[in-house]
Amino acid sequence: MPNLCFYDMFMYPLERMGLRRLRRQIFKNIHGRVLELGAGSGLNIPVYPSNANFEIIALEPSRDKTNCSHSRRKSLNPSPGKLTWILGKGESLPFADASFDSVVATLVLCSVQSLKGTLNELKRVLKPGGQLRLLEHVRPPQERLAKLFDYLTPAWFAVAEGCHLNRESGHAIEAAGFQIIEKRSYLAGIVQIFIAEVSSPN
Fold first, then answer.
1. Nearest-CA neighbor of 60 among 155, 161, 137, 153?
2. Within a 10 A sphere around the Cβ of 153, how many other Cβ atoms?
3. Model confidence over 84-135: pLDDT tens digits?
4. Is it true that domain 6-138+166-198 has CATH number 3.40.50.150?
5. How buried is residue 27: exposed, middle or buried, by Cβ count under 10 Å (0-12/13-18/19+)?
6. Strand spans (E) along 74-125
7. Closest among 105, 100, 102 to 125, alpha carbons compared
8. Edge-to-edge, what's the strand order for the sheet holding 191-198?
């Protein structure tokens, strides 16, 4: 592990078990100006493409996690000039309309204070034809397991930095005006990758 941040130590076994492979899928063939929402301690930095034409703006609300990202940012595959790190929240993005070709987030929507507000902001800053790429854990499709997640969520929320185990992010993405053009499910549907675009007006 590159540092001793608590979040990194918590995530390390999951990264080894295949989470990093899923992160890599999110960044496959990415190009242009990219917003990474909730960049955290920089766990996605090792999977940034090294030969792509892109610029990443990494947004993270936690100063502590931003400080933890320094060692990874120094080892960034592309030149450091292609990465800019900004403190900020998804509910109030400090960017103009239609600023990004893609928005990427991994395990972030579970923890934002306002899911609807964040998705509306992401839609606002995406260029026409831009893509929203998400790796999220969601409320399980199996009813018994879903009820268990509902039961555990209050305690998990208290110890896991405001994370909701039972958010139905897929429904929220569509309700915000996105069209999901690709969805991949893992771990019995608990972990999902969403590729979405802004829905065309009827």
1. 161
2. 18
3. 889 999 999 999 999 999 999 999 999 999 999 999 999 999 999 999 999 9
4. yes
5. buried
6. 83-87, 100-106
7. 100
8. 83-87, 54-60, 32-37, 100-106, 126-137, 191-198, 178-186
Q: How far, in Å, are 10, 20, 109 from residue 17 at the CA level?
A: 13, 8, 22
The amino acid occupying position 152 is: L
3-state secondary structure of 138: coil
- Tell me what the mean pLDDT of segment 180-184 comes to: 96
**Distance (Å, whole) CA 161 – CA 180:** 28
Model confidence band, residue 1 (pLDDT cutoffs 50, 70, 90)? very low
Rg (CA), the chain: 16
- pLDDT tens by residue, 20-75: 788 889 988 888 999 999 988 888 888 887 766 788 899 998 877 776 666 666 66
Three-class secondary structure of residue 55 per DSSP: strand
For residue 137, give the nearest of 106, 171, 175, 178 by alpha carbon. 106
Phi and psi angles of residue 90, each rounded to the nearest 5 degrees, phi first: -65, -25
Q: What single letter denotes the amino acid at residue 3?
A: N
Q: Has this prediction a pTM greater than 0.90?
A: no
CA–CA distance, 149 with 164 (Å, rounded to integer)? 9
